[in-house]
Write a structure and sequence with these properties.
Elements (H helix, E strand, L loop, with lengths): L3 H15 L3 H9 L2 H8 L4 E3 L6 H22 L6 H7 L7 H12 L5 H9 L2 E3 L4 H8 L8
Antiparallel strand pairs: 1-2
């Protein structure tokens, strides 16, 4: 269930996409919440609640690159408090510090953005937009658009 703020943001996103997507505009005009949910779902991801450790990095990047990345992390003073969490498999991928660390590895060209995305794919799953949320965000109970 979306909060009021999430509904407002979703409503704005749908209305912006209606300007360039005729199929979505038609679904909105028909009040076809199923079609809107399908159209708005691709690319949406949610965190699974899992944490990241050495194994997830090795699995995502392969042995050669994964080991090189872990060596970089172990050698860098910027990562000294991350090492224990990685070794224990307890790094929270939602944490801003983890996101910054991953971005830094991309910035220094230790990994590519594609590699960073592969690491994140270990802890993310598709987040299909709920049909009920679509209706609640876009229409009043009587079907009148908000």
């Amino acid at each position: 269930m979306m909060t009021a703020d999430q509904q407002a943001a979703f409503r704005a996103e749908v209305k912006a996409r209606i300007e360039t997507d005729a199929d979505l505009a038609a679904a909105y005009a028909r009040k076809d919440c199923d079609a809107i949910a399908v159209a708005m779902s691709p690319g949406r991801m949610r965190f699974t609640g899992e944490t990241i450790g050495n194994g997830a990095i090795l699995d995502a990047l392969g042995l050669e690159l994964g080991n090189a990345v872990l060596d970089t992390i172990h050698a860098g003073s910027d990562y000294k408090y991350v090492i224990a969490l990685l070794d224990q498999g307890r790094v929270d991928p939602r944490a801003e510090t983890f996101q910054e660390a991953l971005g830094k590895l991309v910035y220094i060209k230790q990994i590519t953005q594609e590699h960073a995305d592969k690491i994140m794919s270990k802890v993310q799953a598709p987040d299909r937009v709920d049909v009920g949320d679509v209706h609640d965000a876009l229409f009043e109970l009587n079907g009148v658009p908000k």
